[in-house]
């Protein structure tokens, strides 16, 4: 059976980690990071693949497009939104 994967999830996860290394946010717990990723991924076009060949082609195509700036812009927007209204009380952690 083939497994359907969205390459954009990998791109967003890496961009989020890069962002967190250089910026401080209100909360960087797993839930807030997942919320940031979900918000960003909902704004970005998916890039699905089901095979190694498809993954390689998707990676190559993603590098050729100006997606990185858009990904980071959506990460920043999502981090601000989650920071303003986190899914949990900040004193619960």
- As laid out across the biggest beta sheet, the strand order is 1-2
The mean pLDDT is 90
Q: What percent of residues adopt helix (DSSP H or I)?
A: 55-70%
Reported for the largest beta sheet, the result is: 2 strands, antiparallel
Strand content: under 5%
Could you please describe the fold and organization of this structure?
The protein is mainly alpha-helical and 93 residues long. It has one domain (5-85). It is built from four helices and two strands, in the order βααβαα. It has helices at residues 7-22, 30-43, 52-64, 67-84; strands at 5-6, 48-49. The chain has a two-stranded antiparallel ribbon with strand order 1-2. The longest helix has 18 residues, at 67-84. The chain starts with a strand and ends in a 9-residue tail after the last helix.
What's a quick, concise take on this entry?
The chain has about 90 residues and is mainly alpha-helical. The chain is about 65% helix and about 5% strand.
List the helices and strands and how they pair.
Elements (H helix, E strand, L loop, with lengths): L4 E2 H16 L7 H14 L4 E2 L2 H13 L2 H18 L9
Keywords, separated by commas or semicolons:
single chain, 93 residues, mainly alpha, 4 helices, 2 strands, 4% strand, elongated
